[in-house]
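Request:
You are asked to prepare a plain-text protein record giving the amino acid sequence and the backbone structure tokens, at your earliest convenience.
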Amino acid sequence: MLTYIEDFIKRKPKKRISYAEYMDLVLYDPEYGYYMKNDMKIGREGDFITTSNFSDIYGKLVAKWYAGFRHKFNLPAAICEIGGGNGRFAKAFLDGWSQYSSSPISYTLIETSAYHRKLQSEELNGFKDVVQYKELGELGAFHGLIFSNELFDALPVHVIEKRDGELFEVMITYCEGGLSEVLIPLEREDIKAFVHVHRLTLSNGQRIEIPLEMENVIKTISQSLVKGIVITVDYGYTKNEWKAPARKDGSLRGYYSHQMYRDILQFPGRMDITSHVHFDALIEQGEKYGLGFIEKHRQDEFFLKLGILDELQENDDSNPFSEKSKQNRAIRNLIIPGGISSAFHVIIQEKAIDACDQAFW
């Protein structure tokens, strides 16, 4: 893919591209993009693991909660999952739904990758009322629950850096040694507007990612959702957290064979690339487009609110590989301090429901 990127850059008048253009190429190009290839990406055989794939208890808990919650706010038995990956969360949710509700449910998956849509179809074979779309814009008018896990962290982002009191955009160019960075004075008005509107302040020498695409996704979600709840699970920082010295180099990371790389220009098209979400901006943009903010929790706190401790089973089985043992172990790992959930947060938004009129939980 390096030759492909080189040719792409050479065709540019100034022989350089933004980080957002680079990420769009190496992640979403129909032929070469990481997410579009027919390769395993999630799990031991892939490059990373998500908490929604860590254990089936995740999907079952959300199903149990929504089975009761929807009656409180007169919502239909319908869920839309954006970026459903291999379909494991969807299967766990539908299995859980059959345990906790007698109502039929419709499950919609939005997935850009044809390979992942194939995996989802195989995983969900036999379930009724499962619909797949390639793009979020195909969803149409929707009532119910919209859920995503690690969606926004995978969107292309621009990178800016402050030098001698001035803002620069970090661009990518190509030379004989391969891909390299070059700084140019910040020219894009939309990036300047994001910095101003969301009141971002950078220290000298600090760089930060600017997620312009995030607003488009939030706007499309709100346009599709007529009435319901949006649950967004991801890792990120608040405005104040971005100011910490540890964030000085930004948050762009690559994951290849379960190893983290700070230089994401390595292995183009062969590794996952992520950046931390601007939580304040996500919430503010949601409000702008009609998604009312309800709550934000660390993921372990969210699980406790869902009643994960009620799922612990008495187990005198000495077999550590029994289903009870595995579920109990997964529950502990999901809520233990410093465990897999500690890096993730859950943002809950609503549209056209009176969430303040009665207890949300």
Remarks:
- Residues 1-28+158-210+243-275 form one domain.
- The CA atoms of residues 111 and 117 lie 6 Å apart.
- DSSP finds eleven helices and 17 strands in the chain.
- The chain has two domains: 1-28+158-210+243-275, 35-155+212-235+276-351.
